[in-house]
């Protein structure tokens, strides 16, 4: 079977990631955390925390599970759906905090707390690996959606800076912040257009200034706006 070439380079396109990679990493963390608690080999938890910290600080090339996935697994299975890398990165940060706390609890002579935290990580990581439901990722996404447009309280887009002068704007349209490699972004814009919506896409890779200005914390993020650019609701 001939596999399609990668659309996202694992070590250069850092703002997106193959959705299977975090699940592979979570499976690794879940299994090893369970082994650590079951056998009492708690230093494994500290090693996992160190690996997460190194990966977050230095990049995917230094995350052993990520490296194995991209160099061994992905070339054989092909590339999975491409998603925003910020939610799984946030999940890894939470994992780092909990695993570090578990290790410190064992070191301080409180193994009950260490084991409880280790089992928490194991359970959530294995849940994510098996079902795709990543608690940390959803915490990030829900927070981003609740913030909507963060930073200052924005309720209006300046349509001129989006490339659409107000005089030529339709009565109603959707402003969608997307990434060209993001699978969910393509799905969202296709669904909106199929529903008869007029969609103005803002590529966050080409316009990071607009993403920063309007505080776009995750893609895709779409807003229904009127002719004046006033935000009516979050779309999609």
Question: Taking strands numbered 1, 2, ... along the chain, how are they ordered across the largest sheet?
Answer: 4-3-5-6
Strand content of the residues, in percent?
5-15%
Q: Name the helix and strand elements from N-terminus to C-terminus, one letter apiece.
A: EHHHEHHHEHEHEE
Class computed from helices, strands and strand pairing: alpha+beta
What integer value in Å does the Rg equal?
21 Å
Helix content: 40-55%
Distance between the termini: 36 Å
Give a short account of the largest sheet.
4 strands, mixed
Total strands: the figure is 6
Shape: elongated
User: How many DSSP H or I helices?
Assistant: 8
How many domains comprise the coordinates? 2
- Uncertain runs are none
Mean pLDDT: 89
């Amino acid at each position: 079977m001939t596999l399609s070439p990668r659309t996202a380079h694992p070590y250069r396109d850092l703002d997106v990631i193959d959705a299977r990679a975090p699940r592979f990493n979570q499976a690794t963390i879940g299994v090893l955390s369970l082994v650590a608690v079951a056998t009492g080999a708690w230093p494994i938890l500290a090693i996992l925390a160190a690996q997460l910290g190194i990966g977050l600080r230095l990049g995917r090339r230094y995350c052993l599970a990520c490296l194995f996935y991209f160099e061994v697994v992905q070339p054989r299975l092909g590339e999975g759906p491409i998603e925003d890398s910020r939610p799984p990165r946030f999940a890894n940060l939470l994992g780092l905090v909990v695993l570090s706390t578990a290790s410190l609890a064992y070191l301080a002579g409180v193994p009950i707390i260490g084991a409880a935290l280790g089992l928490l990580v194991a359970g959530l990581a294995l849940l994510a690996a098996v079902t795709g439901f990543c608690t940390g990722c959803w915490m990030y996404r829900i927070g981003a959606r609740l913030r909507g447009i963060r930073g200052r309280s924005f309720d209006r887009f300046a349509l001129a800076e989006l490339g659409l002068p107000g005089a030529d704007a339709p009565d109603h349209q959707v402003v969608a912040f997307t990434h060209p490699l993001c699978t969910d972004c393509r799905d969202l814009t296709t669904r909106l257009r199929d529903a008869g919506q007029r969609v103005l896409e803002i590529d966050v890779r080409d316009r990071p200034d607009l993403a920063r200005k309007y505080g776009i914390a995750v893609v895709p993020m779409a807003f229904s706006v009127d002719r004046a650019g006033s935000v009516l609701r979050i779309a999609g």
